[in-house]
From TrEMBL:
Organism: Platanthera guangdongensis
Superkingdom of the organism of origin: Eukaryota
Xref: InterPro entries: EMB1417-like, TPR-like_helical_dom_sf
Protein name as annotated: Pentatricopeptide repeat-containing protein
PANTHER family named in the record: OS01G0757700 PROTEIN, OS07G0545900 PROTEIN
Length: 166
């Protein structure tokens, strides 16, 4: 996997231009993305992440979903950042079934030692509450919510118990 960022900004812009002018067809987008990486010896991780960020700023939710899913199908960048972005976009696009499918992949990420950050935990638990699945909401909070948080008080860093959400 490519980890250096030389030229990644230009590659990201090229990817954004490429997917932005495509029809909203999964096969067309997949073919274009496959072509985009066909000349690469290693998967351009940094350029892909930058492209997702650009698409997010341009509020192109469907393109973010298409590119993220393509990356996951390729077995690339299975990180909490990618999953968090995808969950957020699926929620904004009212694709709750797909968000649930992505949530089911969480055990795979646990095996890799990847834990969700506090923001992701809040979003997932909030989504469960919106769906009326309070049992799953409590399970997510109990399993992933940090018990402690750090505050700065009188110039010192102090550890305090985090308030539990219900």
């Amino acid at each position: 996997m490519k980890r250096y960022s030389a030229g990644s900004g230009q590659k990201a812009l090229h990817l954004v231009r490429l997917v932005s002018k495509l029809p909203d067809d999964k096969d067309a987008v997949t073919a274009a993305l496959d072509y985009w990486t066909s000349w690469e010896t290693e998967f351009p991780i940094i350029a892909s992440a930058k492209a997702l960020e650009i698409l997010s700023r341009r509020i192109q939710w469907r393109r973010i979903i298409q590119v993220s899913k393509w990356m996951l199908r390729k077995g690339q960048v299975l990180t909490m950042g990618t999953c968090d972005t995808l969950l957020l976009v699926l929620d904004r696009d009212d694709r709750l079934e797909e968000a649930e499918e992505l949530r089911r992949r969480t055990p795979d990420m646990e095996e890799l030692g990847v834990r969700p950050d506090d923001d992701t935990v809040r979003r997932v638990s909030s989504a469960f509450a919106n769906w009326g699945e309070f049992k799953n909401q409590k399970l997510v909070l109990r399993k992933y919510q940090n018990k402690w948080k750090y505050l700065h008080f009188n110039g010192e860093r102090v550890r305090v118990r985090a308030a539990e959400e219900q």
